[in-house]
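lol ok so funny story. i was supposed to be doing the assay writeup but got distracted and ended up predicting the structure for this chain instead. priorities right. anyway since i did it might as well share w the group, maybe its usefull for someone
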Amino acid sequence: MTISTRSQARHPLTEPDLSSPDPGSGLLGFLRTRAWLILALPGLAFMAVVFVLGFAGLLWTSFQAATGQTTFAAYTDLFHSVAFWDAVSRTLRLSVLTVLGCLVVSLPMAYFIARSAPEKRDHYLLLIIIPWLSSIVVRSFGWQIILGDQGPINRALQAVGLTQEPITLVHNEFGILIGLIHVLAPFMMITALSAMLSIESRLEEAAALLGAGPVRIISAVVWPLSRRGVATGCILVFLMSNAVVVTPLMLGGARSATVATMMYTQLLQLYDFQRGAALAFILVVLVVPPTLLLTWWGNRGAPIRQRRG
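and the output, tada:
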């Protein structure tokens, strides 16, 4: 009994051709599956070299006295200084309050823009980005006028009879906080908006059909799915609020010093590079634990497919 040629033919879907090389194996397959890594290698190498060399130089300078001797004097002087610990506590306190203030201001705006008509989103984003066209010095000077003793806020409070004398709204931590929220809120809004735009509106409609109210939809649908973008915004705002110099100098003054303003004074006014480098290194150490915590919090509630991506 002979077998026909058709029955001897190999079905391409059930029996692969082992004679031909697998395009997904070997060097060619590695290059195809890791193309993104190859493209990112030059940038990663550049950033690694710049960061490692810069960080090593910063650490080395913090131990080098003006006489050329290696000493821990900068760190011991700072750790025994009351002004330094006041600046550290003020820096962390303002950073946390700035993150919370940006959350309150930015999240409703981001959700409104995400659910608005596509042709109107560009106009709303333009209104938010316009303040970036002006210098941070100009914006801080504007807040000096608005929050000043003769500014519109104090005049309005006195006009309605709430206060008899001007309230000190500037040259203190309140003035710094207002300025930081104004400067950094767009960063929070844009990162949250990018996450909310990826949430399909059908999910909210399905939750509404199941009887969920607006608050329940926000807490059970929108918030968990946008947590990763919100966490990214929190990290950006927290890091930048720790390192900003102009706003605390103009709206806070000498009595509201932060670690960044102390570093500015040591480097650019007193030319004490050892102590300035020590302050910079301490500031880096301070921001690492909160950054890792926010990263863990953002990934904790992210969907599995987002974690893998």
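The first helix runs from residue 5 to 8. The CA atoms of residues 80 and 303 lie 47 Å apart.
back to the writeup now i swear
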